[in-house]
């Protein structure tokens, strides 16, 4: 299973970016998907998460500015980021809980991570 994130870049404060992440490989189901971020010198933190049923939760710092969505048919998750602030600058990672096959006759749920995409917001 692989997660491929895209859409990061450099934007001025107040601008917008849309991140995308596609899950591919031997996937038999996808549970919760989410976006995390890690700024230099800081721990990785949850930005937003969405369940397979569409329930969402957000970090307080991004509520009202970011929107997470998903396309279950394509195993994709998106993060629309509006009104960006310099403090949103970080590497953003997508995460997905996927049902995959062990090759030994059973399937299991596992968390997978994308490679990270840099978001830089200039003041």
Largest sheet: 7 strands, mixed
Radius of gyration: 15 Å
**Percent of sequence in beta strands:** over 45%
**Could you report the average pLDDT, rounded to the nearest whole number?**
96
Structural class: mainly beta
User: How many E strands?
Assistant: 11
Shape: elongated
Along the chain, the helix and strand elements come as: EEEEEEEEEEE
Uncertain ranges: none
Proportion of residues in helical segments: under 10%
Helix count, DSSP H or I runs of 4 or more residues = 0
- End-to-end Cα distance: 37 Å
Characterization of the model:
- The protein is mostly beta strands and 123 residues long.
- It is built from no helices and 11 strands.
- Strands 2, 4, 5, 6, 9, 10 and 11 form a 7-stranded mixed β-sheet that branches. It has a 4-stranded antiparallel β-sheet with strand order 1-3-8-7, with no helix packed on it.
- Strand 9 and strand 10 form a beta hairpin.
- It is elongated and about 55 Å long.
- The termini are far apart.
- The model has no long low-confidence stretch (mean pLDDT 96).
């Amino acid at each position: 299973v692989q997660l491929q994130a895209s859409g990061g870049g450099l934007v001025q404060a107040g601008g917008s970016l849309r991140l995308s992440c596609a899950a591919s490989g031997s996937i038999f189901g996808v549970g919760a998907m989410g976006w995390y971020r890690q700024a230099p010198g800081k721990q990785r933190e949850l930005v937003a998460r969405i369940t397979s049923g569409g329930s969402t939760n957000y970090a307080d710092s991004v509520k009202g500015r970011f929107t997470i969505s998903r396309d279950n048919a394509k195993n994709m998750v998106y993060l629309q980021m509006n009104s960006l602030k310099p403090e949103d600058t970080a590497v953003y990672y997508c995460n997905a809980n996927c049902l995959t096959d062990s090759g030994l006759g059973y399937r299991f749920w596992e968390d997978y991570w994308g490679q990270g995409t840099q978001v830089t917001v200039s003041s």
